[in-house]
Amino acid sequence: LDLAYFGSDFCGWQRQAQSKKPSVQKIVEDAMQDALGYAVNVRVAGRTDAGVHALGQIGRVRT
User: In 3D, which of 40, 56, 54 has the Cα closest to residue 10?
Assistant: First the structure.
């Protein structure tokens, strides 16, 4: 995957149970699960912190 996003509304890339904002990872994985009909795991080359934008973040999908 080649990902780009505005990070202002996210707690960062990685899923975090205690965060008030969603993670980018959760949004991407949930959207892919809805589209494909089964759970996936998305891993990226580097994680972003809360509020950080990304352009060209590279990842892979595991089923």
Answer: 54
CATH code of residue 28:
3.30.70.580
pLDDT digits (tens, 9 = 90+) for 2-61: 999 999 999 999 999 899 999 999 999 999 999 999 999 999 999 999 999 999 999 999
**49 has catalytic annotation:** yes
The whole-model pTM stands at 0.91
Instruction: Determine which one of 2, 30, 34, 49 is catalytic.
Output: 49
Residue 38 CA to chain centroid, in angstroms?
A: 17
Cβ proximity of 5 and 53 under 8 Å? yes
